[in-house]
Amino acid sequence: MATTSSDEKQVMIVAVDDSEHSSYALQWTLDHFFTTLPNPIFKLVLLHAKPSATSAVGLAGPAYAGAAEVLPIVDSDLKKIAARVVDNAKQICSKRSVTDVITEVVEGDPRNVLCDAVEKYHASILVVGSHGYGAIKRAVLGNVSDYCAHHAHCTVMIVKRPKTKHWIYTLATLHLYILQQ
Length: 181
Fold this sequence. Notes:
Blueprint: E1 10-15, H1 20-34, E2 42-50, H2 53-57, H3 60-63, H4 67-95, E3 101-107, H5 110-121, E4 125-130, H6 135-141, H7 144-151, E5 155-160, H8 164-180
Parallel strand pairs: 1-2, 1-4, 2-3, 4-5
């Protein structure tokens, strides 16, 4: 874990992408670490790992005869997506009056990008959302949070979105409680 002077804030990196899980993890983090304190103890870094155009195209990429024409278009689209992801994350922060935020987009595999960023920023905490994949999907698609938990040189907080059924039950219970009052 990184050590800091009394004047310097510890760094918390939040991984952001275009998923609901990522948005929830960011909102949860802001609500629990930034908006509840008058002077948060963390410096917030929002990090998006942008895939390379060749990895997005996949196996057909270099072998594909038209790859030279396709790759610049794919890269342009990936840059637009990355800009949208970062803008959405900044809007979530702004809505919660969190304005002291560093944003960064780094091209590469999210597992490596996140672990490298932990070293670059000397982060104390890395926050990632959980997609809630089952064992088979995790094995096929890989698991960024699991990789980071084992390889990042800091605390890794995996934020899992509650199941909808749980929220419906909680809301129904709260509604019944209010009606009884």
